[in-house]
Design goal:
By secondary structure, the chain is of the alpha/beta class. The chain is built from 9 helices and 8 strands. An 8-stranded mixed beta sheet has the order 4-3-2-1-5-6-7-8, sandwiched between helices.
């Protein structure tokens, strides 16, 4: 008897299982509400910074951020983007000033880190080599999603935090509760990495890594390439646009201009 029917049946079962699993984990196909959280509960926010305008827009979006609600902030920048790394540190210093240094000294959970990952694609990089650089970036995203950065993987965290605080940080935080991005290719790979973790149901990923993508203010009538990929794949929980024209075309939620 030919083995072909058995191979076909086995392949069909595998493909059906993959399809059903994707239906379950893709946010656009299976929307869920976030679990309620008490103020001060350890919550990790992962923020993807592009370069130049993307970084300026993202930090503008976060100007009302309360560090007592998002008790650890992980900033992700691409290699060579010292500007974004410095802007993230300046933003955190401003948060510390605004919310009171003494409060932050008492509350050991209010912390941050800045991580550097390889670029998905360099400027003028040949398309032929882009899959390899993107794969390298994807593997770096896996490490950043699993735990906040340490001295081995990042520009280091809040200088005010000592070794004891760093130990508390590593014990309390693992996968981010929320990922916020606004344009760069790195954002797509971080979101893809989060979906891969959820696809395999790794321990600690349940209810984690919800995603919000905010399209750039410069995008008036069409989404960016990153936005198109994420929307077509149903990969984000919420896609926000800053121009009513995009919302009317069914390309996202319009909540007004979000940048100052």
């Amino acid at each position: 008897m030919s083995a072909l029917p058995y191979i076909f049946a086995f392949t069909s079962i595998i493909l059906t299982s993959i399809f059903l699993r994707l239906l379950y984990i893709l946010p656009a196909l299976n929307p869920t509400k976030p679990s309620p959280r008490a103020k001060g509960q350890p919550t990790r926010l992962l923020i993807v910074l592009g370069s130049g305008g993307h970084t300026a827009e993202m930090l503008s979006l976060l100007h009302t951020l309360d560090p007592n609600l998002y008790t650890h902030r992980s900033y992700v920048v691409s290699s060579g983007d010292d500007f974004s790394a410095l802007k993230a540190i300046e933003f955190e210093n401003a948060l510390a000033t605004e919310h009171g240094g003494s409060k932050r000294e008492i509350d050991l959970l209010s912390t941050y880190d800045v991580s550097v990952i390889p670029r998905a694609r360099e400027i003028y990089q040949p398309l032929l080599t882009t899959p390899w650089s993107s794969l390298r970036c994807l593997f770096a995203c896996f490490a950043i999603l699993r735990t906040p950065a340490t001295q081995q993987t990042s520009i280091i965290t809040n200088a005010q935090r000592d070794d004891t605080r760093n130990g508390i940080l590593m014990c309390k935080y693992s996968y981010p509760d929320l990922i916020v991005a606004n344009g760069p290719a790195t954002a797509v790979l971080i979101i893809v990495a989060s979906l891969i973790f959820r696809f395999f149901g790794l321990s600690g990923t349940n209810g984690k890594m919800r995603t919000v993508y905010v399209e750039s203010w410069a995008r008036v009538s069409t989404l960016s390439l990153s936005g198109k990929i994420l929307r077509a794949g149903g990969m984000v929980n919420r896609m926000l646009v800053q121009w009513d024209m995009l919302a009317k075309n069914g390309q996202g939620e319009f909540r007004g201009a979000l940048v100052r």
